[in-house]
Design a protein that fits this description.
single chain; mainly alpha; 8 helices; elongated
């Protein structure tokens, strides 16, 4: 076992909830780990429907997230790192499939959004997203389904995906945005006409 993996396991054991952990803390961590992820698609939909000035940012953040998740799947395929419970390490407090842990999909979703916001100057919402993402990362380590390096890997993958998309977006972003907006206005013409969403 190399030094990095030793450190990874040591940090996990320090953060993982033990037998004496209170039930209320486990319940709170479970909500953070399983529920807060839904804030991301909700925020993207709300931004698209009612904040036209934020649509380009929402679309680009969504694309960064999709690319990062794709890269994450490739990494998991070629380097299938086991989850803690798959090697009998620590305590596991929520059910999870025995699939590769690195990098964390939850971590990628939040890191992609935070990077997209922060690196385009949306500092307040970027910091809020980052703080919530850190809470989610902690909770999933605390509950025993991820290692700390799974979360750092998610951040690295998200940054790489953002940088990878920069030249692509600079060349094709505006035409793609216009195409998606035309499709949106066609498909949701009736709600737009009613004033339920913004054109």
């Amino acid at each position: 076992m190399n030094a990095l993996e030793v450190l990874n396991r040591s940090l996990f054991l320090q953060l993982n909830a033990g037998d004496q952990t209170g039930a209320s803390l486990i319940r709170t961590a479970t909500v953070i780990a399983d529920v807060l992820i839904y804030l991301i698609p909700l925020a993207l939909v709300l931004a698209w429907l009612w904040l036209p000035q934020r649509r380009q940012l929402a679309l680009r953040a969504c694309l960064v997230c999709c690319v990062a998740l794709g890269i994450g799947q490739l990494l998991a395929m070629f380097w299938p790192h086991p989850r803690p419970f798959m090697i009998g390490l620590g305590h596991t407090w929520i059910a999870h499939a025995a699939d590769p842990s690195f990098p964390s999909d939850h971590g990628i979703v939040f890191a992609s959004m935070a990077c997209s916001l922060l690196l385009t100057g949306e500092l307040l919402w970027g910091m809020v997203t980052a703080v919530v993402g850190i809470a989610v990362a902690w909770s999933r380590i605390f509950l025993g389904v991820h290692f700390p390096l799974d979360m750092l890997g998610a951040l690295a993958v998200s940054l790489f995906a953002y940088l990878l998309l920069l030249p692509v977006w600079a060349r094709w972003g505006n035409p793609f945005m216009q195409m998606i907006e035309r499709l949106y206005r066609y498909l949701l013409a009736w709600p737009i006409a009613k004033g339920w969403t913004r054109a």
